[in-house]
Each structure stands twice: as structure tokens, then as C-alpha cells.
Design goal:
- This is Rubisco LSMT substrate-binding domain-containing protein.
- Pfam families: Rubis-subs-bind (PF09273).
- It comes from Ensete ventricosum (Abyssinian banana).
- GO terms for molecular function: protein-lysine N-methyltransferase activity.
- InterPro entries: Rubisco_LSMT_subst-bd, Rubisco_LSMT_subst-bd_sf, SETD3_SETD6_MTase.
- By secondary structure, this protein is mainly alpha-helical.
- It has one domain: Alpha-Beta Complex (set domain protein methyltransferase, domain 2).
- 54% of the residues lie in helices and 5% in strands.
- The chain has 7 helices and 4 strands, in the order αβαββααβααα.
- The protein has a two-stranded parallel sheet with strand order 1-4.
- β2 and β3 form a beta hairpin.
- α5 runs antiparallel to α7 and α6 packs antiparallel against α7.
- It is globular and about 55 Å long.
Length: 166
């Protein structure tokens, strides 16, 4: 069962309002600093994502078991947050798409490096401090979920580069 508290809200709103976040929040956002863009329809087709941007969903009937396990809310959030282009009948150029995807991956890696700790260190902090205050635990989990989201976007961009169909 899924309870939809704040439809269309980023993790920071969940943190502010309820004190929790989710690594698979389909509404999470990344602010990219590069001008790179990938072709929206190509990205959607690689992960069998259907619907309009505000109503994206993973079409599991078209996907393999492996894809069903990978395509979660974070992959859908990536479809909403990645800088994309879509220009009617103009097909994307594979080499340009791969270059743009790599540039966006590099941007995600830079964002990961801006955190004071690594994903593993955050997990170790959580595991080693079972008596930590709820506020501290929530803050570390939020940071951990941000990193997990960035890593998932990096993985999605890697798969996108491998599976681009033209």
C-alpha cells in the first residue's frame, strides 16, 4: 500500500514536513549545472516509461524482469529532472546523446563529491549510532537518500548509453 502525502513534492519537502525522505521518491530533483541534454523520448523508451511528465509510470508489461527491478521511482524522477530535449521528428544523434549522458553523469559525480561524507560513511554512522537522536538520524538518512538517488541517476544514464536504439 502506498500513501501519497504530498503529490509532486521533492524529498526536502518530506523532510521539512514529516522528518523522512525516500531514495525512490519519483518527484526528487537534481539541479544540473551543465548545458547537456538527452533526448526525452529515447530515455523513456529505454526504461519503458509511459505517460505525460506529471504522470510518468513504468510500464512493466513491456519490460523484462531485470528492467522491472531497476526501474523504480528514482528512474522516473530522473526522467523528470534530467535536462532533456524533444524536437518532433528530428532523431537524436547517438554520439551526441552518449556525450551528453556522460556529461550529465560527470555532473552527478561532482554533486556526490560535494557531500562531506561518502555513502558508505553515512551508512556506517547510522549503523554505529543506534541511540542517535531522531533529528540526527533523519538528517543522515536524507543525505544518504540524496546520494542513493544520484547514484541511481548515474546508473540509469549508463544503461541509457548502452541501450540507445536508433
Amino acid at each position: 500500500m502506498t500513501i501519497n502525502y504530498l503529490s509532486g513534492q521533492k524529498n526536502n519537502i518530506y523532510m521539512e514536513r514529516y522528518g523522512f525522505s525516500s531514495p525512490t521518491n519519483p518527484w526528487d530533483v537534481i539541479k544540473f549545472s551543465s548545458n547537456a541534454k538527452i533526448h526525452l523520448d529515447s530515455y523513456l523508451s529505454v526504461f519503458n516509461i509511459s505517460g505525460l511528465p506529471e504522470e510518468f509510470y513504468h510500464n512493466s508489461l513491456l519490460s523484462s524482469e531485470e528492467d522491472n527491478n531497476f526501474a523504480d521511482g528514482a528512474v522516473i524522477a530522473a526522467a523528470r529532472t534530467l535536462p532533456t530535449w524533444s524536437d518532433g521528428d528530428i532523431p537524436p544523434v547517438p554520439s551526441t546523446e552518449r556525450r551528453s549522458a556522460r556529461e550529465l553523469q560527470e555532473n552527478c559525480y561532482r554533486l556526490l563529491l560535494e557531500f562531506p561524507t561518502t555513502l558508505e560513511q553515512d551508512q556506517q554512522i547510522l549503523d554505529s549510532n543506534p541511540d542517535a537522536s531522531r533529528t540526527r538520524e533523519a538528517a543522515i538518512k536524507y543525505r544518504l537518500h540524496r546520494k542513493l538517488f544520484l547514484k541511481k541517476v548515474i546508473q540509469a544514464l549508463e544503461l541509457y548509453q548502452e541501450r540507445i536504439l536508433f
